[in-house]
Amino acid sequence: MLGGRYELRGVLGRGGMAEVREGWDTRLGRAVAIKLMDPALTALPENRRRFEAEARAAARLHHPHIVVVHDSGEHEGIPFIVMERLSGRTVADLIAQGPMPTAQIRSLLGDVLSALSAAHAAGIVHRDIKPANILLTDTGVPKVADFGIAKSPDSGHTATGLVIGTLGYLSPQRLAGRPATAADDLYAVGVLAFEALTGRVPAPHENLAAARPDIEPALASVVQRAMAADPRARFADADQMRAALFAV
């Protein structure tokens, strides 16, 4: 029983730093998801600080398309984060079934960009936007999750030369070790869109119009601009990209 309140149940998933367990909030009588730091990593202060920074970053973001953090704490020396319990499905599961319809992709990207707009306004850069980090509710509503490597005012993840994230979704600037910016999150959204439309991550410098000639030019243009090698050629912010996405 974590914190005298949360009952641990089955394992929902595992990552490089933690596992996520199904849980039950005995005080409020509701299902939750509990992220537990890997005990083998707790000895390093940097790991504990990053885990705690994730809880703080996510907890201060109140948005319909960001996973809700209910609580955090420590049990027998192991930090944990308590989050809303979702279906367990992700956008990666949708893409695994084949390319998604363009209308569904527009809706998905609009929701993700709305979430990123809120995060960026709070000074938080996610740094690991990818299909597996976008969870789905029972009704299919997308929610951005896993702020474990986010850069925020209190995270301390600012060092040049430190490459953190998932290959394939990292901008050229991130691969070069430059500090992450909001433009890098938008690059990752572009890669996500390409993958949702084609079923695969793009090769370097690959053009969506060539990969999917049937895609309407306006949508292909938005995706290509988001994936521009030069960050100055990308959208100024998430709101601008979202507006272009739905422009007639």
Oligomer class: single chain
Number of helices: 8
* Proportion of residues in extended strands: 15-25%
Poorly predicted regions are 157-163
Element order: H for helix, E for strand: EEEHEEHHEEHHHHH
Determine the N-to-C terminus distance.
53 Å
Extended strand count: 7
Outline type: globular
What's the story with the biggest beta sheet? 5 strands, antiparallel
User: Quick check: average pLDDT?
Assistant: 88
Instruction: Assign a percent range to the helix content.
Output: 25-40%
Structural class: alpha+beta
Cα gyration radius (Å) = 18 Å
- Major sheet: arrangement of strands: 1-2-3-5-4
Quick overview:
With 248 residues, the chain is α+β, with helices and mostly antiparallel strands. It has helices at residues 45-59, 91-96, 102-121, 172-175, 182-198, 208-211, 217-226, 238-246, and strands at residues 6-14, 18-25, 30-37, 69-75, 78-84, 134-136, 142-144. The strands form two sheets. It has a five-stranded antiparallel beta sheet with strand order 1-2-3-5-4, covered by helices on one side.
Account of the 3D structure:
This protein has 248 residues and is α+β, with helices and mostly antiparallel strands. Helices cover 34% and strands 18% of the residues. It has helices at 45-59, 91-96, 102-121, 172-175, 182-198, 208-211, 217-226, 238-246; strands spanning 6-14, 18-25, 30-37, 69-75, 78-84, 134-136, 142-144. Strands 1-2-3-5-4 form a five-stranded antiparallel β-sheet, with helices on one face. A two-stranded antiparallel ribbon has the order 6-7. Strand 2 (18-25) and strand 3 form a beta hairpin. Helix 3 runs antiparallel to helix 8 (238-246) and helix 5 packs across helix 7. The protein is globular, with a radius of gyration of 18 Å.
